Amino acid sequence: MTPFMLAVQDHLDGAPATAPSTTPSAVRTLAAAADTQVLIRSLAEQLLCEANVVLRQHGAEFTLVDESGPGALTFTIACADRSARIATLVDARSATAHIQAPGIAESRELAGEEQMQALLLSLVPATAGDRSTP
Fold first, then answer.
1. d(CA 134, CA 60)
2. What's the CA gap between 131 and 102, in Å, rounded?
3. How many CA within 13 A on the CB side of residue 104?
4. How many domains in the chain?
5. Inside any domain, residue 133
6. What are the tens digits of pLDDT across the range 7-28?
7. Segments forming the whole domain that contains residue 120
8. In whole angstroms, how far apart are CA 43 and each of 7, 77, 127?
């Protein structure tokens, strides 16, 4: 098992999830912001797959849905009734990252890609580890 899979199992066994660190959303060049969005999204997919190996044994599962449209690169991660939406909003030659998730104020972004693990763990409902729940 990977270190993140072990962290998911520990969380299911009762270890509390730590809220992800965030920083105020900052305007970046379009190239830099798009690169960061692709890195964060790729990492989310990798970690989500690892987490699902553990979560499926408990009847839970993460989903990842990409959205694309004029002026935005967006993906949403969900587990049960909890979700987080990560978007890079484009304005001409610049862009700004934003995250919408429980407990995170508006106009914030993850403090770094290493915060994706904390974000995912924060989305796992407490009941996912309850084996008596169908």
1. 10
2. 25
3. 28
4. 1
5. no
6. 999 999 999 999 999 999 999 9
7. 3-127
8. 16, 12, 25
